[in-house]
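#lab-general

N.A. 3:47 PM
ok so I finally got the sequence cleaned up, no stray characters, all 226 residues accounted for. can someone with queue access submit it? mine expired

B.Y. 3:52 PM
send it over

N.A. 3:53 PM
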Amino acid sequence: TVRKGQPLFQVDPRPYRAALAGAEADVASAQSALALAKSDYDRVAGLTGDEAIAASEIDQLRTRVRSATAALAAAQARRRERALDMEFTTVRAPISGRAGRAQVTEGALVSQGEGTLMTRIEQISPVYVSFAQAASEVLKLRRAITGGQVDLDDNDRVEVRLTFSDGTEYPIPGYIDFLAFSVDQETGTVELRAEFPNPEGLLLSGEFVEARIFAGKLTNIIAIPQ
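B.Y. 4:20 PM
back already:
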């Protein structure tokens, strides 16, 4: 079991550390060049009378300051990029869940461009259950809700309960959190998804379960004793 942000793998940081040191040196050099350019410009810009120099030379010094400022900004951007590369040498879990076995061993080559699979993390809780319902049934249910024949719960949620393949029922109900707005033309069904808490880890990724929808309570009906 891993938590979000937990370190999982360490990529050799030495080449990235060297690149970061070079970028920091470039920033220091750019800062010095900018300071010198500003000093030259300030000294000349303050001259008056017989000490004044041509306007073209002042423009050159002003352009030199702008160029040095741009060079410093570029060096700082490269330093941020190298620092980000250095940060990425520690591969952290993007989500909390349960990690599978490592797909790479120590000393293996990993590729940034092709995206080397290092491990898989399955989210434990919550778990999403995807299923399909006949479009005609979904339409009938929506009309019943709109017409007031079915009352939803206080939060206007549609409850779903699960049954495992061995016939036992999952004890915690879930609720539909996604309903597709299109019908699968081949099957005539609408895709739905329900979210379930899974604190004990009973629901496993990829598992087949039976889903039953409890949309709400029927209203204005006659109850006949069995």
